[in-house]
Amino acid sequence: MQKVLVIGASRGIGLEFVRQYREAGAQVWATARGEHCAAVQALGATCWELDVADATSASSLSWRLDGLNLDAAIYCAGLYGPDTAGLEPPTQADFDTVMHVNVLGAMRLLPAMAEGLKPGGTLAVLSSVMASIGGRSSTSGWLYRASKAALNSVLKDAALALQGRALCVALHPGWVRTDMGGPAASLSVQDSVAAQRRVLAGLTAQDHGGFLGPQGEAIPW
Ligand SMILES: NC(=O)c1ccc[n+]([C@@H]2O[C@H](COP(=O)([O-])OP(=O)(O)OC[C@H]3O[C@@H](n4cnc5c(N)ncnc54)[C@H](OP(=O)(O)O)[C@@H]3O)[C@@H](O)[C@H]2O)c1
Questions:
Q1: Integer angstrom CA distances of residue 160 from 72, 91, 118, 133, 203
Q2: Residue 217 falls within a domain, yes or no?
Q3: What's 176's DSSP letter?
Q4: Which domain does 118 fall in, by range?
Q5: Which atom of ligand 1 is nearest to the CA of 16?
Q6: Using one digit for the tens of pLDDT, what is the confidence trace for 76-114?
Q7: Residue 142, domain member (yes or no)
Q8: How many CA atoms lie within 13 Å of 161's alpha carbon, on the beta-carbon side?
Q9: What InterPro entries does the database record attribute to this sequence (predicted)?
Q10: In the chain, how many domains are there?
Q11: Measured between alpha carbons, how far is 109 from 102 in angstroms, rounded to an integer?
């Protein structure tokens, strides 16, 4: 039976990963903030309360994962932050909140997530095409873009550190109809997650350290 961990599963893409992996018969562990574990547990997953922006809360993951031998661990938690168009400076509070969830949380949790994997398991982070510097043609949401570019850097270092032990990828889920993506987005959350699950299932050694879109296509860094 496949064993999967989803970090940030209260709603949106994270919750849909839990739903689809459970439907496929996988054993699923997930984390969510506050009161949201009930929705995750209703899908038959084990859920732990965890705020990725809180050091004490995040430190609980390591012992929980001891001996699980996961096939895959996915960091989904994310925040968009201020909806800017140009070079509006973020407030200190917005900067800290977005960077803590999108970057610091991943830096705190990825080592424990990697330790929880079986040899050759998959470690994935939910990045965004908006992180891409090579493909950039807009300045919208520059704090979010900066945070996801930093997350990509974190993933790349994880890939170097875990070479030969895990397959590490940054995933762009497409533009998805969730609270973050909004109602005008092009993909349903069901289709996005189904596509990402296909990408994860089809990963090979060549994909290690890659930045991949919902069809498995390489995205420029
Ligand atoms: N939707 C898109 O079009 C799109 C496109 C590119 C990339 N992404 C990325 O995909 C991931 C999931 O996005 P989504 O569309 O599902 O967004 P969403 O519906 O806004 O959900 C965001 C998730 O992140 C969790 N989260 C935020 N701060 C957290 C914290 N401090 N501790 C724990 N969990 C926290 C939220 O939990 P709470 O319910 O507790 O707030 C929620 O589960 C994000 O990383 C996002 O950047 C999304």
A1: 18, 34, 17, 21, 17
A2: no
A3: B
A4: 3-212
A5: 16
A6: 999 999 999 999 999 999 999 999 999 999 999 999 999
A7: yes
A8: 12
A9: NAD(P)-bd_dom_sf, SDR_enzymes, SDR_fam
A10: 1
A11: 11
Residue 91 DSSP label: P
What is the whole-number distance in angstroms between the Cα of residue 149 and the centre of ligand 1?
Answer: 16
Which CATH number do you get for residue 185? 3.40.50.720
Does the pLDDT at position 218 exceed 90? yes
The two three-digit tokens of residue 19, written as one number: 């739903």
**Which long-range contacts does 174-181 make (Cβ < 8 Å, 24+ apart)?**
174/213, 174/214, 176/12, 176/13, 178/11, 178/12, 178/13, 179/11, 179/12, 180/12, 180/78, 180/80
Q: How much is the pLDDT for 34?
A: 82
Distance between CA atoms of residues 193 and 174, nearest Å: 10
**What's the CA angle centered on 148, arms 39 and 21, to 5 degrees?**
35
| C-alpha dist (Å) from residue 89 to 93, 101, 139, 189 | 11, 19, 12, 31
Name the residue with the closest Cα to ligand 1, atom 35: 77
Q: How far is CA 21 from the centre of its chain?
A: 15
Does a structural domain hold residue 219? no
Position 35 scores a pLDDT of 83
E strand or H helix at 124: strand 117-126
Residue 192 belongs to a domain: yes
Question: What is the rounded CA–CA span in Å between residue 95 and residue 111?
Answer: 24
Q: Element (H or E) spanning 193, and its range?
A: helix 189-201
CA of 77 to the centre of ligand 1 (A): 5
pLDDT tens digit sequence for 1-53: 999 999 999 999 999 999 999 999 999 999 999 889 999 999 999 999 999 99
